[in-house]
Amino acid sequence: MKSRWQLLFLVAAVLVCAGLAQTQPGHALLRDTGLYETPAAYTELTFSAPGDLPSAAAKPNASIPVAFGIHNVSADSRDYHWSIVLVHSGKSQVEASGNALTSAQGRTAIEKSVPSECTGDRVQVVVHLASPAESISFWVTCPSATTKKRAGQ
After folding, report:
1. Dist. CA 15–CA 56, nearest whole Å
2. 114: alpha, beta or left? (left if phi > 0; alpha if psi -120 to 50)
3. Overall fold of domain 42-152
4. Successive 10-residue mean pLDDT values, the chain, 153 residues
5. Hey, where are the domains in the chain?
6. Which of helix, strand or coil describes residue 21?
7. How much is the pLDDT for 141?
8. Where are the alpha helices (DSSP H) in 22-98?
9. Are strands 78-88 and 91-102 parallel, antiparallel or unpaired?
10. In angstroms, rounded to a whole number, what is the distance separating the alpha carbons of residues 19 and 31?
């Protein structure tokens, strides 16, 4: 009978400790003893539908649709400053920018169309976050010189 009470006491003590470990003071105690780590906080920047990104511009001044998402993997909400930059002929031009307040563990979807001004062989479309400094990009092929001449006639 004595061993049964000891077992019951042990199970109750384990359950109480497990419950306390789930509280903020419990996390602090476990962190101080090296038994708990704060989960990593990071940001994911992705194209919403990578397979739908345009690979070629229909005409030199066609708009390029850009759809991307920001995933805030942290315990706090964050305000992200983003921009869409076109890079062609060695020059960069910001074509769109804004802010996206994203809740903790939340996602924000952004869709924009930017003018291409496709004058060279190709244009790089870069989506950039200011902080944390992250970027993703894709290339768009410009219409050939003969297509440009026909479009101007």
Report:
1. 61
2. beta
3. Immunoglobulin-like (2.60.40)
4. 77 72 72 72 96 90 94 95 93 95 97 86 95 95 60 50
5. 2-32, 42-152
6. helix
7. 92
8. 24-32
9. antiparallel
10. 16
